[in-house]
Write a structure and sequence with these properties.
Layout (H helix, E strand, L loop, with lengths): L5 H19 L7 H24 L9 H20 L4 H21 L3 H28 L7 H21 L7 H25 L1
Length: 201
């Protein structure tokens, strides 16, 4: 396991501060469901960053990491649907709950191919929605152009989430050391893109 460096801790601290800022300042004036979804997503991101700062990358050895990593994109995508596609919010919330349960159950009950497939499907759908919806809204004029940065954050969270998840499933896309080297910077860039995108949205 790669030892966490001072630079890693600084980047993770920046990630946590940006997540905390978004919770405290960036969620004003939203509907109840969207506020709850965004709060859960950024709250989990904040806690995850703090745990890595305190405990190092060893915290990623926990079998719960795959499940926790799934909460962030599912909650963010559910918040976007609730805010911008409210007619579909109930259906998507049902998908988010079922998807989360599928990842959690297969992770412990049937680790292997089925767990990998359920993880890829859930992360893929949530990540694509976070990536595509802000871009479509920005390009169509339904949201300011700067809101497209949320889509950039969505692309980054998709990459980070899949790298971590497949690493934990024993099917790493890249060597563990490489993933852990880029993870803090990836998280900081992702959080910055989300905060900037929501502020301009």
């Amino acid at each position: 396991m790669k030892k966490i460096s001072p630079l890693d801790r600084i980047l993770l601290l920046i990630t946590g501060l940006l997540a905390a800022y978004q919770i405290v300042v960036g969620l004003e004036g939203l509907g109840t469901l969207a506020t709850w979804c965004y709060t859960i997503a950024f709250g989990v991101l904040l806690v995850a960053g703090l745990l890595m700062i305190i405990m190092g990358f060893e915290v990623l050895d926990s079998p719960l990491v795959v499940i926790v990593a799934t909460i962030i994109p599912l909650s963010l995508s559910a918040g976007l649907v609730a805010e911008y596609l409210p007619a579909y919010s109930a259906a998507y919330l049902a998908f988010a709950v079922i998807g989360f349960l599928a990842v959690a159950i297969t992770r412990f009950a049937t680790p292997g191919r089925l767990a990998t497939i359920s993880l890829a499907v859930v992360h893929g759908i949530a990540g694509l929605l976070i990536f595509i919806l802000p871009l479509v809204l920005s390009l169509s004029g339904a949201a300011p152009g700067g809101f497209a940065l949320v889509g950039v954050g969505g692309a980054l969270i998709g990459v980070g989430g899949l790298l971590l998840s497949f690493l934990k499933l024993g099917k790493p896309v890249l060597p563990q050391k490489t993933i852990l080297s880029v993870l803090p910077g990836l998280l900081a860039l992702m959080a910055a893109a989300f905060v900037a995108g929501f502020a301009m949205g």
